[in-house]
Prior knowledge:
495 residues, alpha/beta, Archaeosine Trna-guanine Transglycosylase, Chain: A, domain 4, Ribose 5-phosphate Isomerase B, Chain: A, 3 domains, 4-stranded antiparallel sheet, 13 helices, 23 strands
Amino acid sequence: MSKFIKLNPDDNVVVCLEAGQKGESVAIGNQAVVLSDDIPVGHKVALATIETGADVIKYGAPIGHAIVPIQEGSHVHTHNLKTNLSGTIAYAFNQKLNEIRYAKRDLTFNGYRRSNGNAGIRNEIWVVPTVGCVNGQAQQIINRFQKEVNPENVDAIEVFKHNYGCSQLGDDHVNTQKALAQIINHPNAGGVLVLGLGCENNQIAHLKQFIGDYDAERIKFLVAQEVEDEIEAGVEILKEIYSQMMNDRREAIPLSELKVGLKCGGSDGFSGITANPLVGVFSDFLIAQGGTTVLTEVPEMFGAETILMARAKDRSTFDKTVSLINGFKDYYTQHNLPVYENPSPGNKEGGISTLEDKSLGCTQKGGSATVVDVLKYAEPITTNGLNLLSAPGNDLVASSALGFSGCQLVLFTTGRGTPFGSFVPTMKISTNSALFNKKKNWIDFNAGQLLEDKTMDQLLEEFIGYIIAVAGGEKLKHEESGFREMAIFKTGVTL
């Protein structure tokens, strides 16, 4: 295997697959390049001299420009490369749709059919506080319930704690209500206790307006200030909910009903070479089966957004995508913060130099399918296919947002590694084998095999089988560890 990989014929840099040493002569295709610097794994090296101001090309597109002359064989990174992005962009609708090459197959997963017709991949009991003031009481209810009852046919019992539900204004208050309503309605929950305090802004009566129609035998409510002992009352309610779940059984559900969130975090120089392309071809495959994927983390679309805009199914979807991008830019400027303050220190250490470098790799998770809809924060999915979702890049906030919109599962690619998990199963996919072998207690699947002995088609088949197994009940590493959290997006003032 070559020590370097050229991702596109037009590129003037290549990516280092193994550490390169200064003075070493390496063969890159028909070219011999002498390294003038030590090149860390995942970082870039110039194939030819790049003059000051000239574009650095990776993935066949500019990822920034040289700020000093870069000689052939030199390390190309933040010390000599700067983003091309600045200010706002006038977008034009130049549609360019792709054909998906995957055929429809008769595949199913073993999930739970809910009374409203939706399908879940877990059967869990959840306690959802309306306000952070009762987080502790919610935990006590679960603790006592588990002491008194040994529940069978329940995958997990969780309380999803948060700090909101009161002292919020405007969009923040509404976002909290939307997010909590979507958790309460999520098909991965077999039953939910909504626990309120009683004096909070997020009153249960108002929250119910966001919840809409619900199964009263599976979703129940308790206001702590209205009872003498909220712990005892809460335990009794959980027992009632559990009595409805005891006979729940998994059944074969068409793969077309799977809704999968696409997310990355702790990206490195291999993210756009292994894990993100793997997730991208899976996205295309699932969509070919009639299923749904959702791509988010809007700030990490900056620099690659025109690729997504060209794939909008129509002018209306294009306009919604433009609003999605510009809305997030406005969010930054309203707070007097730089729009393109990205990538992170960990990204840079892993070989990502600019936001375009990161975004061109990040958006590969969306494959090549047509963009069928653009969702607002905590807005439920209504159209099967590839959706875009408004949410930031923050790992837990974005992964939670994918769950709020109805994803039963999140695919999370990472080159640096992370142990977290959102309130829905969050599959960690490593970009490289070194991370997979080092952090087997964190990582669920190794896309680094693409740099070794597996073709994309071979690894995709393995990946499909694993996702079906997880949808059928096989637990991910964060589920085994008990790391389950959710986070709500906050934009404004707290009273």
